[in-house]
């Protein structure tokens, strides 16, 4: 199979990433590196998140370092991180428009390690669904009620609070089904309604859960094991059997705070002989 990897970064890092990918051969695979700024349709007249970022209210919420802001909402301080409004974070909602000739695409976050062949995903019968994802709920955890404000009448009316959440990070998207279901329009509809953050706080998972509410196909859990950036109790057996492991959380393996038992899963793929990589001073 001919593999094409579509890597998207920002203008500032584009040159460095293009050079990095040209330094090696990837077994015949083609690596396309583009900057988010190259997608001209992603502007504030089309993208609600960019328009909202221009609003004075949201800029105050993020960038005014006032004491009352810091103390008033301490439970939700993590949602004040501007990464939740980064266009790179919200690109996942525009895949059919970014790649209009593609029928299917495998979406991978930048903090995952692929441990085994993913070809079988391309043969998957998606049953007309848009998003193939691993479900994350167990007991009462990671249900829709945890991600959205069910005291809001619109949320209460449209969604089941006990519906099972699923994970971003390794998702198989049927872009033809996406176009047919008009998922990007759905995302825009809800993102516009949430300008005052009354439906959900921030981030891409809640609008993802909303957008693909009835169009997600659950994948076997061994495809995607999460939590290597915050949960030290994941079993090594579960990790060994995983197709993709995901260092979601703050304890990334390239940082000093990364967990020692999980770091080798990432470090074994780092080319420490590369002059540029050695300058990064990663801990092996």
TrEMBL record:
Membrane topology of this protein: Single-pass type II membrane protein
Localization (cell): Golgi apparatus membrane
GO cellular component, one term: Golgi membrane
Example GO biological process: cell wall organization
Record carries keyword Transferase: yes
Protein name listed in UniProt: Hexosyltransferase
Organism of this sequence: Dendrobium nobile (Orchid)
Cross-referenced Pfam families: Glyco_transf_8
Pathway of action: Glycan metabolism; pectin biosynthesis
Family membership: Belongs to the glycosyltransferase 8 family.
Enzyme type, top EC level: transferase
Residue ranges that the Swiss-Prot or TrEMBL entry lists as coiled coil: none
EC number in record: 2.4.1.-
Keywords from the named record: Cell wall biogenesis/degradation, Glycosyltransferase, Golgi apparatus, Transferase
GO molecular function, one term: polygalacturonate 4-alpha-galacturonosyltransferase activity
SUPFAM superfamilies xrefs: Nucleotide-diphospho-sugar transferases
């Amino acid at each position: 199979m001919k593999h094409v990897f579509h890597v998207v970064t920002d203008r500032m890092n584009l040159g460095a990433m293009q050079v990095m990918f040209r330094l090696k051969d990837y077994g015949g695979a083609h690596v396309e590196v583009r900057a988010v700024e190259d997608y001209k349709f992603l502007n504030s007249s089309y993208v609600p998140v960019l328009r909202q970022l221009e609003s004075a209210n949201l800029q105050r919420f993020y960038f005014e370092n006032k004491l009352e802001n810091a103390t008033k909402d301490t439970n939700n301080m993590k949602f004040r991180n501007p990464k939740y409004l980064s266009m790179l974070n919200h690109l996942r909602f525009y895949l059919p428009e970014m790649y209009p000739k593609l029928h299917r695409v495998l979406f991978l976050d930048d903090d995952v390690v692929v441990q085994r062949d993913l070809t079988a995903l391309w043969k998957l019968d998606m049953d007309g669904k848009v998003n193939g994802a691993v479900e994350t709920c167990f007991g009462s955890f990671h249900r829709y009620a945890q991600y959205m404000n069910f005291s809001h009448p619109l949320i209460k009316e449209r969604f089941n609070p006990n519906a099972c959440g699923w994970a971003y990070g390794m998702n198989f998207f049927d872009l033809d089904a996406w176009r047919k279901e008009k998922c990007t329009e759905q995302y825009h509809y809800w993102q516009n309604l949430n300008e005052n953050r009354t439906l959900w706080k921030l981030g891409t998972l809640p609008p993802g859960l909303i957008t693909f509410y009835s169009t997600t196909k659950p994948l076997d859990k061994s495809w995607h094991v999460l939590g290597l950036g915050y949960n030290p109790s994941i079993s090594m057996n579960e990790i060994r059997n995983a197709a993709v492991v995901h260092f979601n959380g703050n304890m990334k393996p390239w940082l000093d705070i990364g967990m020692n038992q999980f770091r080798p899963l990432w470090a074994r793929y780092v080319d420490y002989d590369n002059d540029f990589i050695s300058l990064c001073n990663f801990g092996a």
